[in-house]
Specification:
Layout: E1 4-10, H1 15-25, E2 29-36, H2 43-56, E3 65-67, H3 81-84, E4 92-93, H4 105-115, E5 120-124, H5 129-137, H6 141-144, E6 145-151, H7 167-171, H8 173-180, E7 186-189, H9 191-198, E8 200-201, H10 203-210, H11 215-223, H12 225-233, E9 239-240, H13 242-251, E10 256-266, E11 277-280, E12 290-296, H14 298-309, E13 319-320
Parallel strand pairs: 1-2, 1-5, 2-3, 5-6, 6-7, 7-12
Antiparallel strand pairs: 4-13, 8-9, 10-11, 10-12
Helix pairs in contact: 1-2, 1-13, 4-5, 5-8, 10-11
This protein binds alpha-D-ribofuranose and calcium ion.
Alpha-D-ribofuranose is lined by residues 11, 15-16, 39-40, 125-126, 151, 160, 166-168, 191, 242-243.
């Protein structure tokens, strides 16, 4: 079976962990590296969460973790700890002896793309700071990358951190603008309506996963717990899975039921609509710069994730609360 070479650029908490599991365990994936970017929770916490996820997958030490940008290009970091807590439901693991790869995340992205010209896809599930920095630092980076699969924005629908904006683009709008104007081949998985329509797992589904009783299933149930409570408090009937959907859409394009070429432009000057993604669907005379996923087979996505979580991995290290 041929595999897809990819890097996951992540602000590791909750569904980022699930997306990492997809990259680590899906037979279609050849995960070359994990790069960390400032986002959901404190940077060191995100790194610990990535190591914990690697361990639960039984793959600690097999995939390098590179540290990328610790803050957005020009703005202060905005935490989502009110949504995610620590991002792993309080789970802990002895991390003694674990070190990130010494190569900085931006350089790792540049070097991996250069080593695999036209072949490497980057799954971008946090703010786009690392990707923008790599494009600024290396003029060949855009051409060397095959495609970016970006979780971010909303497709003419509500945001989540503000009425207008989705978190990843809100946190570093200048980076998002840089990336969408750089000439990459881009696929976008938006927050709304796509994620809210097709990638929300109900308490019943989460209990179904818990009943699998594997290390992965127990890990999943714990790490989604805080976000599940938050999501319900804002009227969403379950835990949200945009990041794992983004990785899954890359590896299993048959999940996509509808997508359209669009012009995606990012707002950077207004405070009110900071990070808003204007997704123009073709009638406004704007050149398209991205493919926006509009509908997926949500039931098939859930079935794929459940099947993955049923795998009886042997965690590299034990974890506990
Ligand atoms: O707005 C949703 C995004 O913010 C996802 O990437 C989620 O993981 C959080 O980082
Ligand atoms: Ca994320």
């Amino acid at each position: 079976m041929s595999t897809i070479p990819l890097v996951i650029d992540t602000d590791t908490a909750q569904d980022d962990c699930v997306a990492l599991l997809v990259g680590l365990l899906d037979p279609a994936a050849d995960l070359k590296a994990i790069t960390m970017v400032a986002g959901n929770v404190g940077f060191e916490r995100q790194v610990a969460n990535a190591f914990l996820t690697l361990s639960v997958a039984g793959r600690l030490g097999e995939v390098p973790v590179h540290l990328g940008c610790r803050r957005p290009l020009t703005r202060e970091w905005v935490s989502a700890e009110n949504v995610h807590g620590d991002g792993v439901g309080g789970l802990t693991m002895d991390a003694s002896g674990l070190e990130p790869d010494p190569k900085p995340g931006v350089d790792a992205l540049i070097d991996l793309a250069a080593a695999n010209p036209g072949e490497l896809t980057i799954v971008c599930i946090g703010p786009l700071t690392n990707i923008a920095m790599a494009a600024i630092k290396d003029p060949r980076f855009v051409a060397n990358v095959k495609s970016l699969y970006i979780m971010g924005g909303s497709n003419n629908a509500r945001g989540n951190i503000t009425a207008a904006a989705e978190y990843n683009f809100y946190v570093d709008p200048e980076a998002a603008k840089t990336v969408f104007e750089a000439g990459f081949d881009i696929v976008v998985v938006p927050w709304a309506p796509l994620t809210l329509n097709e990638a929300v797992f109900s308490r019943e589904q989460i209990a179904e996963i818990g009943a699998l009783d594997t290390p992965l299933a127990r890990f999943f149930v714990r790490i989604v717990s805080t976000t599940l409570d938050f999501d319900e408090s804002v009227g969403i009937a379950g835990s949200t899975h945009p990041d794992s959907l983004t990785a899954s859409v890359l590896l299993h394009p048959e999940l996509v039921r509808k997508s359209s070429r669009m012009s995606v432009q990012i707002e950077t000057s207004s405070e009110l609509t900071r990070g808003y993604a204007a997704m123009s669907w073709g009638v406004h005379g704007l050149d398209p710069n991205a493919t926006v996923v509009e509908a997926v087979d949500g039931a098939a996505f859930y079935a794929q994730l459940s099947a993955m979580l049923a795998i009886a991995t042997v965690p590299s290290r034990s974890f506990s609360n």
